TrEMBL record:
One of its GO terms (molecular function) is zinc ion binding. Gene3D superfamilies: 1.10.30.50. The lineage of its organism: Eukaryota, Viridiplantae, Streptophyta, Embryophyta, Tracheophyta. It comes from the Eukaryota. This is HNH nuclease domain-containing protein.
Length: 185
């Protein structure tokens, strides 16, 4: 069995001074200068200051703070810790630690107006949605609520099941504080 050939370094991202490459057929001695180094790129304004200048000021993904607020605006489940359990806008139960997986308790942070159609990654355009529904929705805007509900993964989860999931993920079970008007003393 032959060993793998050594991998080439990407000269365009090299931090060493510009090098020449023989044999490319250029008029001056057959040598070509490689592309700009990182230092040259900083001078050209691609990385102003010492921070990286993000070429996309409107990110596709939601920032962490928006995800936190989006979770907060999702419907709470009575008797369950709201930091761990919520309902998406279709009524599906979702678990906070299950993000992006295909299961019935998994969720995504969905762009209400799809990013590909001009939707921004802002709180106003964010909703918690069961992952399977979000994936089937894609970038469609003309899909009805009834059709989205049909695409939901039906998941009947009893309180004991939720306790077990919570115990496995967090090592304990927490209940939501009871907010009824009466307290027994």
């Amino acid at each position: 069995m032959k060993p793998d050939p050594p991998r080439r370094r990407n000269r365009a991202l090299s931090s060493s001074p510009s090098k020449t490459r023989p044999g490319s057929g250029e008029a001056r001695g057959g040598k070509v200068k490689t592309s700009a180094t990182l230092l040259d790129r900083e001078e050209m304004g691609l990385f102003p200051g010492s921070g990286y200048d993000d070429p996309n000021p409107e990110p596709r993904g939601f920032p962490y703070s928006v995800k936190q607020q989006c979770w907060e605006k999702a419907e709470k489940i009575k008797g369950r810790d709201p930091e761990r359990w919520r309902r998406d806008h279709l009524g599906n139960i979702v678990f906070r630690k299950l993000v992006g997986c295909p299961g019935c308790l998994c969720h995504d942070y969905d762009h209400i107006v799809p990013y590909s159609k001009g939707g921004k990654s802002t709180l106003e355009n964010c909703q918690v949605l069961q992952a399977k529904v979000n994936r089937s929705k894609g970038n469609k805007t003309d899909i009805s609520r009834a059709e989205l509900i049909q695409r939901s993964s039906y998941c009947r989860v009893a309180g004991r099941d939720m306790d077990l999931i919570e115990l496995t993920a967090y090592g304990n079970v927490q209940r939501a504080p009871v907010s009824s008007g009466c307290r027994i003393q």
